[in-house]
């Protein structure tokens, strides 16, 4: 580690400690001047989690989402503004399973200092998780693409909100019930759309392996060029092997992702074309981030419907 980086780290931690002291002297912001308890301050990392808390809590909490549309959580680093939001939060809700790969140390340090943190992946039983490889206990972090996983996560987050803010317990309970029903409707919608696609065509090729839980839950074969994290670039051998698979199976379309640079899939398309088989780009999918707030794809349910329609329309 160079002296310059050490110095910057020390400055950052000094800043964090100062923030912590300020927030402690304010009583953590839980009691307002009028003596009434203020709103619970929730900080979320991914757009999927921000949407989930919005669905469950509405305006009952003060919500701050760190990542925006098109942001890749594997590569996201907390800026100074984020660190101050995290330290002022009553609870930090994050995905876990190393999805937020560059924030793992920060979450660990906060937990050690007694900060309330919730890694939502903790609620998914190991039997439902997809191992990254047989030899380690690392699991695929893209749990939201299993709608049944997301239902568990919704229950987990709602229970935590009830515990932290019992005054609004009934609201959280009602919202959870409503949202669970909407997730069941989403599952039916996805199954219905897929039923129109012959089984031989249920193969999804994307830039990185974000869709494993979708594949597991809905009977799709999924292949990502970059593996489970975008931190590792695809090598020439990966491109060559996947191109051969696509040409051999005559897969009609590949998909780009909104949070991953398009060049990886374009390189794959070129490699397939070079084999004399023409494959098209089937469209852009939302993988690790939702669309713009205020658009249908800005919610988890809208995002999933958009993805499944794009996939089925391009592959049929
Ligand atoms: Zn990912």
**Beta-strand content:** 5-15%
The radius of gyration computed from the alpha-carbon positions, rounded to a whole number of angstroms, is 21 Å
Instruction: Based on Cα principal axes, name the global outline.
Output: globular
Total beta strand runs: 8
CATH superfamily of the largest domain: Nitrogenase molybdenum iron protein domain
The helix/strand series, from N terminus to C terminus, equals HEHEHEHEHHEHEHEHEH
Spatial arrangement of strands, main beta sheet: 2-1-3-4
What is the rounded distance between the termini? 52 Å
Structural class: alpha/beta
Count the domains: 2
Characterization of this structure:
It is a single chain. The protein has 316 residues and is α/β, with parallel strands linked by helices. About 5% of the residues have low confidence. α4 links the parallel β3 and β4. It has 2 domains: 177 residues, 3-Layer(aba) Sandwich (Rossmann fold), CATH 3.40.50.1980; 119 residues, Rossmann fold (3-Layer(aba) Sandwich). Helices cover 46% and strands 11% of the residues. The chain has 10 helices and 8 strands. It has a 4-stranded parallel sheet with strand order 2-1-3-4, sandwiched between helices. α1 runs parallel beside α3, α2 crosses α5 and α8 packs across α9. The site of zinc ion (ZN) has 7 residues, from loops.
């Amino acid at each position: 580690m160079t002296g310059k980086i050490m110095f910057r780290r020390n400055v950052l931690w000094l800043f964090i400690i100062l923030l912590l002291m300020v927030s402690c002297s304010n009583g953590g912001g839980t009691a307002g001047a009028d003596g009434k308890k203020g709103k619970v301050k929730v900080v979320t990392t991914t757009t999927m989690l921000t949407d989930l808390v919005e669905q469950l809590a509405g305006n009952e909490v003060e919500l701050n989402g760190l990542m925006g549309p098109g942001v890749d959580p594997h590569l996201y680093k907390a800026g100074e503004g984020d660190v101050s939001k995290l330290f002022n939060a009553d609870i930090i809700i994050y995905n876990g399973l190393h999805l937020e790969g560059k924030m793992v140390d920060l979450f660990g340090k906060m937990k050690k200092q007694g900060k309330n943190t919730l890694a939502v992946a903790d609620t998914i039983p190991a039997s439902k998780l997809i191992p990254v490889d047989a030899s380690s206990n690392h699991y695929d972090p893209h749990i939201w693409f299993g709608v049944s996983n997301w239902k568990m996560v919704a229950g987990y987050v709602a229970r935590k909100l009830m515990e932290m803010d019992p005054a609004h317990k009934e609201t959280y309970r009602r919202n959870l019930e409503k949202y669970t029903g909407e997730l069941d409707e989403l599952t039916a919608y996805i199954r219905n759309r897929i039923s129109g696609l012959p089984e031989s065509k249920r193969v999804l090729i994307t830039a990185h392996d974000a869709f494993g839980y979708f594949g597991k839950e809905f009977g799709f074969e999924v292949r990502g060029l970059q593996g489970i994290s975008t931190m590792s670039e695809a090598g020439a051998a990966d491109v060559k092997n996947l191109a051969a698979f696509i040409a051999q199976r005559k897969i009609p379309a590949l998909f780009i992702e909104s949070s991953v640079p398009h060049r990886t899939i374009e390189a794959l398309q070129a490699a397939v074309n070079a084999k004399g088989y023409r494959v098209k780009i089937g469209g852009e999918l939302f993988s690790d981030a939702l669309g713009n707030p205020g658009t249908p794809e800005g919610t988890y349910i809208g995002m999933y419907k958009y993805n499944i329609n794009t996939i089925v329309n391009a592959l049929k």
